[in-house]
Amino acid sequence: MRSYQRSVPAPADGLGLETIGVVAGSPVELEVRLESVTEGVYVSGTAHAAVEGECARCLDPLSDEVNVDIQELFAYPDSVTDETTDEDELPRVVDDLVDVEQTVRDAIVLALPLAPLCGPDCRGLCPECGEKWAVLAPDHGHETLDPRWAALRERAASTGPSANETP
To answer: In b/e form, how buried is each residue of 52-72, taking b as 16+ CB within 10 angstroms?
Structure first.
């Protein structure tokens, strides 16, 4: 068994989703243990990285951190596991080396939120004017007129109050 601590740069295409992820070249901190087992090398540990993105509701920039656990078996060549699993099903030990990039990438991407928020109470944007609800007055609103009632409203405005109404 061997333990390693490494700081590696994120891949050139970054790690993440369209709205949030680890910026390309930024450090990813790894703490891993490699253990020799019957069928291969078992890699376990953690990965830590800073993530940046934008709020899915108000589009403000946000930053956070992600911590993920890593657990993966890398099969030895010509082992029973190697022979009974597909090539894309389980990573392999190649020339006595294990490449944990895909394992770390998968763990980080799966830990990221699909719709990141700048805060749990973010109300987003007004659908009419596009302003942030957080900066708008509490009584902010837009009058929406059903086009089917437009003619009736115009007629009522041109004739004034009806006989049953008091001015």
So the answer is: bbebbbbeeebeeebebebeb
Domain that holds residue 106: 2-111
The residue type at 2: R
- pTM: predicted TM-score of the whole model, two decimal places: 0.74
Neighbour count for residue 47 (Cβ, 10 Å): 24
Task: Find, among 66, 24, 64, 32, the residue nearest to 48 by Cα.
Answer: 66
Structure token pair of residue 165: 């109404």
CA-to-CA distance for 48 and 26, rounded, in angstroms? 11
Residue 61: what are its φ and ψ, rounded to 5°?
A: -65, 150
CA dist., res. 76 & res. 58, Å (int)? 49
**How many separate domains does the chain show?**
1
Q: Report residue 117's pLDDT band, with 50, 70 and 90 as the boundaries.
A: very high
Length of the chain counted residue by residue? 167
In a domain, 50, yes or no: yes
- Mean pLDDT across the chain: 87
Task: Report residue 44's pLDDT band, with 50, 70 and 90 as the boundaries.
Answer: very high
